[in-house]
Amino acid sequence: MCVLSDREIEEYVACGKLRIEPFIPEHMTPNGIDLCMHEAWIEGITEKFVNARVNIPPHTRFMLATREFLSLPDDLVGMIWLKTSLARKGVTGSFGLIDAGFAGTLTLAFYNSSNDAITLNPDAKIVQVCFEKMSKPAGKLYAVRSGHYQNQKGVTFSRI
Question: How high is the pLDDT of residue 83?
Answer without folding.
Answer: 98
